[in-house]
Amino acid sequence: MGPRRFAVALVAMLAVVGVILGLVSGFFASAAGSGLRATGLWSDGGASTVSPGTFDSPAATGTPSATAAADGLPRPVLPAATETRVPSARQVAARVAAVDDAAMGGRFSAQVADLATGEVLYAHRAASPAIPASTTKLLTSTAALSLLGPEHVFTTEVVRAGAGKVVLVGGGDPYLASRAPEAGEPASASLAALAATTAKALRKAGRTEVALGYDASLFSGPAWNPRWPAGYADQVTPVSALWVDEGRTAGVSPGPRVPDPARDAAEAFAAALEKKGVEVTRTAKAEAPASARPLARATSLPLEQVVERLLLASDNDAAEVLLRHVALAAHADGSSAEGTRAVRRTLDRLGLWPDDARLQDGSGLARETRVPAEALVDLLRLAADPAHPELRPVLTGLPVAGVEGSLRNRYGDEASRAGRGLVRGKTGTLTGVHALAGYLRTADGTQLAYAFLVNDATDDFAAKVWLDRVSAALSRCGC
Q: Is 134 a catalytic residue?
């Protein structure tokens, strides 16, 4: 082959390679673009839909936690641009007023305050009680952490109850699971592990056949709050001290629930025992003898992680279980009525309960609950107070806007995208009722606690959009 023909052949070969590389790189770029579009982090043409620095910051994970700074406060995902300066009430008010609220209808109440100093920078009907929806979970969680402590755990036990009989005793673990968690799933105690330990102990005692009883007597009172309409049956499980997978038959919420969570858990435990070679002759409701000896036990996540998990997902089921534990911690019976009474008394002791507020459940499903915006801001400020480290999970459990939990699919339009990664908040949603309460970091580094409660909204979607936009506007503020 002559030099000229060789050169031509070489050029042709390089051209082919270039085409192939172009196609391959185009494929992966397309695939990456599709994946990022699904998360809202990619747009065709124009600027990125997230603020600069997103990918230089600690990535959000499935665990609701944040990096703590020197002052111990959890940080939003994105860093602030500059150092903190004294905030301006006038500028905060201007930011809120600039976000049009006409489309949502109804009325709103709100308060914004400096998280560190408590200086109120904005207030609109802040002292007027309003329906808080799921921001109620902040109240329940705060009371539980205050009374029980962040390291408290709930224990599910299997005890001996005579020859050839064992009793599964519910300890009110809201996240007791049927199986051990897989990689990437939240940690939790499981009936599978409990059954394995129980079967081992039974075999050691020479038994491979038992009758199984189940005891859910830790809680008392109605399992279904009378203030909940029947239509909420896919939103919350009848409350029980013994359940598995939160009584969700499809593993999701909203979704179908089992009518008798305790029996369902016992049957799941019996099946797990059978898999370990122990025959269960019958399963029946029972009461564990006071002197019964433990055979095996499963310990829940620490309360701080329970609180983080329930706030992240706005978990009605876990919140209602915690309400019963608050009642028991206050030395009352484990009923919903005593739970709400204990929450009120605990928050009053902490200086957080106004005289005209009302509480009817632990999750916020009851529309009769009334809480002013200023009480929620006071609660958030107390959780940030170095004198109350036991309350810190109330802040670390708040989902990050546009990243995780109940805020994962929010902050999607041009007017709210700036809030992604900077705003953390607890959502609240009922028909005509929308709320957001949490904290954020402004463009100049100021940390603000905020609460916005919208009641009687005529356009539910517009109300959510307004909440996203107004909190995002504050995050852009050089206040």
A: yes
Separation between Cα atoms, residue 88 and residue 96, nearest integer Å: 13
Q: What would the pLDDT profile of 400-450 be if each residue is shown by its tens digit? A: 999 999 999 999 999 999 999 999 999 999 999 999 999 999 998 999 999
pLDDT one-digit tens code per residue, 255-277 = 999 999 999 999 999 999 999 99
Which of 109, 240, 253, 314 is the catalytic position? 314
- Assigned token pair, 345: 């008394």
| 314 has catalytic annotation | yes
228: tokens are 């909940």
Query: Average pLDDT, whole number, for the chain?
Result: 86
- Please give the helix or strand (H or E) that residue 218 lies within, else none: none
Asked whether residue 80 is domain-assigned, the answer is: no
The domain that holds 178 is classified in CATH as 3.50.80.20
Same domain, 335 and 314: yes
- Whether 200 is catalytic: no
Lowest pLDDT segment from 63-67, 240-244, 290-294: 63-67
CA–CA distance, 11 with 9 (Å, rounded to integer)? 5
Is residue 69 situated within a structural domain?
A: no
Judge whether 237 and 257 are in contact, CB under 8 Å.
yes
Which pLDDT score, from 0 to 100, does residue 86 have?
Answer: 58
Catalytic choice (137, 146, 335, 406): 137
In terms of pLDDT, which residue wins out, 443 or 126?
126
Residue 235 included in any domain: yes
| Residue 79: half-sphere exposure toward Cβ, Cα within 13 Å | 10
Q: Are 479 and 92 in contact (CB under 8 A)?
A: yes
Residue 259 sits in which domain range?
Answer: 155-301
